[in-house]
Design goal:
Elements (H helix, E strand, L loop, with lengths): L20 H29 L6 H49 L11 E5 L2 E6 L7 H32 L6 H46 L4 E4 L3 H29 L4 H50 L2
Antiparallel strand pairs: 1-2, 2-3
Length: 315
């Protein structure tokens, strides 16, 4: 939680040469997650060796399932921490480029670009007299990534505790089925929220690129050219929100399934399709993250091209 406060624009007195605390914390958290997955893997091997023993393997598989998903979530938190460090480094980049271009940008007798929409090799852009405001999705991303990560972590821990209860119930009983439903619903709700938090962090990076790019150009007294929101970014928002909604719905449906645990046939029917359904939610958010990364790459390419233009022509 202390690290969360550092995912913001550094103070002017901060030194970009200082080692990133986010990198150290992120690697440390990732190693914890890796150790958890290895422990769960060894437990599963032990369970496989004891499959002939009455129900002992099912008890082991119950808590190792909880540990596996918790460890996956820990690795996602590590990714989020590294992304926080990228946000800080992004603002160091903005300040450095702004300072360097003051003495490097060229001067040309050609007229400055007209205000309005323009076409670029990287998509449609808008030329404005001042830096553009952040879009609603950017403001939302900056506000929502901390609670999403926090709630996702809490859901994962609650699911892991439920898996310990699951392991202590007698296989084949109603209580065993209910504990299994609660474990899966909680943990995949947590996974969905963590992935949504990562997606919102990527949205925060896009917000920083938009804001920082406009700030750099405005500091030189030239019109500001900013890419319009591309189709990939719109699709990113759509897939991410759809996946998050599915993750919430699957949790509600697992609660309903737990209420039907007294009917083995009905519970089995619920379980058979809820598994693939929850995976669709996670897959949707992951597809959104891929599209966000693609968009970030395109924006960085556009900004690099823009800096070259400013250095060469001054406009």
């Amino acid at each position: 939680m202390a690290t969360l406060t550092l995912a913001a624009r550094p103070a002017p007195t901060d030194d970009y040469r200082e080692p990133s605390i986010h990198r150290k914390v992120g690697i440390g958290v990732a190693l914890v997650g890796l150790m958890g997955t290895m422990a769960a893997f060894i437990a599963n091997l032990v369970a496989a060796a004891g499959v002939d023993e009455a129900n002992s393997h099912q008890e082991t598989l119950a808590w190792s399932f909880g540990l596996t998903i918790l460890s996956f979530g820990t690795l996602k938190i590590a990714i989020a921490v590294i992304l926080m460090g990228i946000i800080v480094r992004l603002w160091f980049r903005v300040d450095s480029v702004k300072a360097a271009l003051q003495g490097l940008h060229g001067h040309s007798d050609e007229p400055l670009p007209a205000i309005g929409p323009v076409d670029t090799p990287y998509g449609r852009a808008e030329v404005t007299a001042s830096p553009p405001k952040l879009l609603p999705i950017h403001r939302m991303a900056r506000k929502l990534w901390p609670p999403m990560l926090a709630m996702g972590a809490m859901a994962l821990v609650a699911g892991f505790i439920a898996s310990l209860v699951w392991a202590n119930e007698t296989p084949g009983t109603e209580d065993f089925s209910q504990a299994g439903a609660w474990t899966q619903g909680l943990q995949f709700l947590g996974e969905g929220m963590l992935l949504a938090g990562i997606a919102f962090l990527l949205g925060t990076i896009l917000a920083g690129l938009r804001e920082g790019g406009g700030e750099v150009q405005a500091s030189l007294g030239i019109p500001v050219t900013t890419l319009k929101m591309p189709a990939t970014a719109k699709a990113f928002v759509g897939f991410m929100m759809m996946g998050l909604m599915i993750s919430i719905v699957q949790f509600v449906l697992y609660v309903v399934a737990a209420a039907n645990a007294d009917d083995p046939a009905s519970f089995s029917s619920w379980s058979n399709w809820l598994g693939p359904f929850r995976e669709i939610g996670l897959g949707s958010i992951l597809l959104g993250i891929v599209l966000a990364l693609y968009t970030i790459g395109n924006v960085l390419a556009f900004q690099f091209d823009r800096v070259k233009s400013i250095v060469r022509t001054g406009s």
